[in-house]
ImmA/IrrE family metallo-endopeptidase (Magnetospirillum sulfuroxidans), 161 residues
Amino acid sequence: MSPEWNRLDPKVRAIIESFQDTLPVRLPEMARALGVPIKASTLAPGISGEIRPFGDGFVIRVNRHDPVKRQRFTVAHELAHFLLHRDEIGTGIEDDVLYRSSLSGRREHQANRLAADILMPEELLAAAQEAAEEKGIGDVVLYLSDLFAVSEAAMRIKVGQ
């Protein structure tokens, strides 16, 4: 797990883990349990997602025109900003298609690493990789990306290929 995962409060990790019991990870339910609703929206061209203050909390908006796998990573990325950088959200953070925002590159990398931990937990990933090998799956990365509902690029990074 990433250093960002280890920085989370154990209670928050327990909430996240309670939604990592099936594949793909139950992301919308997880976000609601953490108090952050998700809204599919039409966002400006080139914007994949955002997190903004909403009422007493925050709301994540994801570009409804993006592919579903990208939307899932965007939601996890914005949720990571909420968990790691809540004090820096200010009036909101918009992330473009390369997950760049007004925050530093370091903060964006932190959000990406935590998003990967949220969507592709190590225990489930190891079990799925083992099952793929036992089944003789040819393209393991494609198989895993479909299973976890993430892009092939995200899965390649996670498995180190």
The longest strand covers residues 47-54. The chain has a mean pLDDT of 92. Strands lie at 38-41, 47-54, 57-63, 93-96. Residues 3-120 form a domain with the Arc Repressor Mutant, subunit A fold (CATH 1.10.10).
